[in-house]
């Protein structure tokens, strides 16, 4: 919405900018930048290491320094320190990769994200504290979105010179999820286990979108320099991103409608580490995946359905419950100790399920021994499964294609 209180908010923005500049300068003086030369074969590379001052050690001293020049409410001092650290951490990640200079990051346009302790919602308006007993009030009663946000909870407002952003969110449910779903991310599928059966979601349509747009971009790149086709290249890149996001949102909506009020477990994947051990052919396939995008969209849409998302470490999710780790490459996992056999991807989803539910590994055999956790549902009569039953579940895989 438009900022109709420009004069009052200008006082807040200018004084907050002074605090943020002071915090950034103070932390910059204590930031260490080290350069090391690393040899890789015949080439010599310069490696940059940046060390920021630890927040716990300098927080009190920095806060006292800012309080001396602060004319706003005291909570803005804490916000300025957190924002200064956020700016420096972002600069550090880019500078260590060579994507940013080693000079102090500059502040272009300052905005204020108001903490929950500095705002009070009264009906269809929010009162924001600037100084003790000095407030700014913004109302959304006559805006176009006033009906759409009825019953929703106001988040942290963002104030700029001309615009005020009011983020609204659904209130989280006060009960625990009833179902659990563990998802193993693969090249063409998402293999899941819900405590009762294995479910495989096909992502071939998404992969074909990425592959088709890659072919179009490669044709454009051949004449981009000669015929000034860079604008056309950007057009197709945006089109690919929009198509992928459209597919991901539809897929996540279908998934959440199938599994409402569910605790989802996904792998915390790192593509850069996958590229190190992968061949060139596999690296190209991995680059076309959008696992993190699916996980991110699922994470922020899950609360709308009363669900939650938990990230688990994917390390050794292909092992069996007895702890046996198979180093053989293949479609099927086989425990050479007890003879348990299962599809490798389904076995990974099963282990993610166990990690999410906190099941320890057992050492007296590879029987699955999985008792489904169903929240408040009754557990009477639940029996542990053996490997034979798991193999029968392997046959009853259900495929879902989201069009």
Automatic annotation (TrEMBL):
Residues 291-352 form the Cas12f1-like TNB domain. Signal peptide: none annotated. One of its GO terms (biological process) is transposition. Residues 178-276 form the Probable transposase IS891/IS1136/IS1341 domain. InterPro entries: Cas12f1-like_TNB, Transposase. One of its GO terms (molecular function) is DNA binding. Keywords: DNA recombination, DNA-binding, Transposition. It holds the Pfam family Cas12f1-like_TNB. In the C-terminal section; belongs to the transposase 35 family. NCBIfam families: IS200/IS605 family accessory protein TnpB-like domain (TIGR01766). This is Transposase. It comes from Saccharolobus caldissimus.
């Amino acid at each position: 919405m438009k900022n109709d209180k420009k004069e009052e908010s200008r006082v807040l923005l200018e004084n907050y900018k002074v605090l943020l500049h002071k915090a950034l300068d103070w932390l910059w003086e204590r930031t260490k930048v080290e350069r090391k030369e690393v040899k890789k074969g015949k080439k010599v590379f310069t490696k940059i290491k940046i060390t920021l001052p630890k927040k716990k050690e300098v927080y009190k001293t920095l806060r006292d320094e800012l309080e001396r020049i602060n004319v706003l409410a005291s909570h803005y001092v804490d916000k300025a320190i957190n924002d200064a650290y956020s700016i420096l951490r972002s600069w550090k990640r880019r500078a260590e990769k060579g994507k940013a200079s080693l000079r102090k990051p500059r502040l272009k346009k300052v905005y204020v994200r108001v903490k929950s302790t500095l705002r009070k919602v009264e009906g269809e308006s929010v009162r924001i504290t600037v100084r003790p007993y000095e407030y700014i009030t913004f109302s959304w009663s006559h805006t176009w979105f006033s009906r759409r946000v009825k019953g929703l909870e106001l988040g942290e407002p963002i104030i700029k010179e001309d615009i005020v952003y009011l983020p609204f969110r659904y209130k989280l449910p006060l009960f625990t999820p009833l179902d659990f779903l563990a998802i193993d991310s693969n090249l063409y599928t998402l293999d899941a286990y819900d405590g009762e059966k294995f479910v495989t979601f096909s992502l071939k349509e998404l992969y074909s979108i990425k592959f088709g747009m890659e072919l179009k971009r490669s044709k454009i790149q051949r004449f981009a320099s000669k015929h000034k086709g860079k604008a056309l290249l950007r057009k197709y890149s945006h089109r690919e991103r929009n198509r992928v996001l459209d597919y991901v949102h539809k897929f996540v909506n279908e998934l959440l409608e199938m599994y409402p009020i569910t605790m989802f477990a996904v792998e915390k994947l790192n593509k850069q580490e996958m590229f190190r051990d992968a061949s060139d052919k596999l690296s190209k396939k991995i680059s076309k995946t959008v696992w993190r995008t699916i996980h991110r969209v699922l994470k922020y849409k899950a609360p709308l359905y009363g669900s939650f998302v938990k990230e688990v470490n994917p390390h050794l999710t292909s092992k069996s419950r007895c702890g046996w780790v198979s180093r053989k490459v293949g479609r099927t996992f086989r425990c050479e100790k007890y003879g348990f056999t299962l599809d490798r991807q389904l076995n990974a989803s099963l282990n993610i399920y166990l990690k999410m539910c906190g099941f320890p590994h057992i050492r007296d055999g590879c029987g699955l021994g999985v008792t489904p956790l169903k929240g408040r549902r009754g557990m009477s009569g639940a029996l542990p499964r053996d490997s034979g039953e798991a193999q029968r579940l392997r046959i009853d895989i259900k495929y879902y294609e989201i069009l």
